[in-house]
């Protein structure tokens, strides 16, 4: 079995990225020529952050060498170095390794290869090469594309493969300023402004979801406004979100609407104010009232400061001692608030009629 330092050039790869670690994983087809399963996971690094990309090969057949080129956007990131991994040395074999040529102007790393020296091969997954990169200072997506990938099997033939290109997101998530829980009474206005910051200076877009009926959120001014109507007492959850077009931050805000008690309203009251009666008249005192909250109402009828009834109606049977000016005061209560109304009436003095037989 001979060394494999020269073999056909192909393209194959997978990027598995994390905040400080990335991997390009190479998979193979089976002996029957089936395509390998390639899983892609885009991840995130922050501007100016250094991170690594591992070119990892998981062979389905024994292999002795591999090579690749890397294409990238040098305006978004630069390559610092390429170092050998453990793929071909995992069984103690000696290797020949080339870190290739880095061109950060062209955005390429060319002719990276590794090959076993001697009559051995590997069939276990491992890292062929580790690429160190530094992200630029701006937000953006860095496309990492493998090309000219060649995998040599133990018979000096090119092994089959597939390639799935992916990207690294360079971004710092915006941070939504804390909003906190809010409380407001029914029929009262609640207004507040949402704000956020972004370390990258990106343009931010705001939104709100699950708005209660009657509430609004102006995405341009970032102002939330709501005047809950009567009957909207309760607890509501509104989610505010900010995005820089890549990453988001959000907060679910609990808004508590307090029920406001409405005082009852006296809708009718007899007798009329300044009504005139005669002694011995039966004077009907009657009051009607309503309550928008639907609460049970209680009544009090006072004549000249003395309580005569605790119902909504009372008949005052006057006599020959009742002449004069009198004040009738009614009070209606819903248990929380009460309202009053007053009438002044006059009862004329009549001489008694004597029946002399």
Which SSEs are present, and which pair or pack?
Layout: E1 15-17, E2 21-27, E3 43-45, E4 50-58, E5 63-71, E6 77-84, E7 94-98, E8 101-103, E9 108-117, E10 126-135, E11 140-153, E12 166-170, E13 175-176, E14 182-185, E15 190-193, E16 196-197, E17 205-209, E18 216-218, E19 223-226, E20 234-243, E21 248-258, E22 265-270, E23 276-278, E24 282-290, E25 298-303, E26 306-309, E27 313-317, E28 324-333, E29 338-348
Parallel strand pairs: 2-4, 3-12, 14-21, 23-29
Antiparallel strand pairs: 1-2, 4-10, 5-9, 5-11, 6-10, 7-9, 8-9, 11-12, 13-16, 15-19, 17-20, 18-19, 20-21, 22-24, 24-27, 25-26, 25-28, 28-29
CATH architecture designation of the largest domain: Sandwich
3D shape: rod-shaped
Q: In the CATH hierarchy, what is the class of the largest domain?
A: Mainly Beta
Helix content: under 10%
Percent strand equals over 45%
User: How many domains, as an integer?
Assistant: 3
Count of discrete alpha- or pi-helical segments spanning 4 or more residues: 0
Low-confidence stretches: 1-22, 28-41
Q: Report, as a whole number of angstroms, the end-to-end distance.
A: 155 Å
Broad structural category: mainly beta
What's the gyration radius in Å?
44 Å
The overall average pLDDT, rounded, is: 87
The string of secondary-structure elements, in order, is EEEEEEEEEEEEEEEEEEEEEEEEEEEEE
Could you say what the CATH topology of the largest domain is called? Immunoglobulin-like
Largest sheet: 7 strands, mixed
The total of beta strands comes to 29
């Amino acid at each position: 079995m001979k060394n494999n330092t020269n073999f056909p050039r192909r393209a194959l790869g997978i990027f598995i990225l994390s905040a400080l670690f990335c991997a390009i994983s190479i998979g193979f087809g089976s002996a029957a020529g089936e395509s390998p399963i390639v899983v892609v996971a885009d991840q995130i690094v922050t501007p100016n952050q250094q991170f690594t990309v591992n070119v990892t090969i998981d062979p389905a057949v024994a292999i002795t060498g591999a090579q690749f080129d890397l294409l990238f956007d040098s305006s978004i990131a630069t390559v610092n170095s390429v170092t050998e991994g453990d793929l071909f040395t995992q069984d103690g074999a000696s290797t020949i390794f080339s870190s290739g040529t880095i061109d950060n102007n062209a955005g390429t790393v060319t002719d990276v290869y590794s090959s076993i020296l001697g009559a051995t091969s590997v069939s276990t997954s491992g890292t062929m090469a580790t690429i160190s990169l530094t992200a630029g200072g701006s937000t953006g997506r860095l496309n990492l594309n493998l090309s000219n990938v060649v995998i040599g099997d133990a018979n000096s033939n090119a092994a089959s493969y597939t390639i799935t290109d992916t990207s690294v997101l360079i971004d710092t998530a915006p941070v939504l300023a804390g909003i906190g829980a809010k409380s407001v009474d029914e029929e009262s206005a609640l207004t507040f402004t949402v704000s956020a910051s972004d370390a990258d200076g990106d343009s931010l877009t705001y939104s709100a979801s699950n708005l209660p009926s009657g509430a609004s959120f102006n995405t341009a001014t970032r102002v939330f406004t709501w005047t809950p109507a009567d009957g909207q007492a309760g607890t509501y959850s509104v989610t505010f979100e900010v995005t820089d077009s890549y990453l988001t931050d959000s907060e679910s805000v609990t808004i508590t609407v307090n029920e406001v008690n409405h005082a009852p309203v006296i809708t009718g009251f007899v007798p009329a104010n300044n009504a005139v009666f005669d002694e011995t008249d039966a004077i009907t005192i009657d009051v009607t009232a309503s309550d928008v909250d639907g609460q049970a109402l209680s009544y009090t009828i006072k004549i000249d400061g003395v309580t005569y009834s605790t119902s909504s109606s009372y008949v005052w049977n006057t006599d020959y001692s009742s002449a004069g000016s009198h004040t009738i005061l009614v009070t209606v209560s819903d248990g929380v608030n009460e309202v009053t109304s007053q009438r002044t009436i006059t009862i004329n003095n009549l001489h008694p009629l004597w029946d002399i037989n």
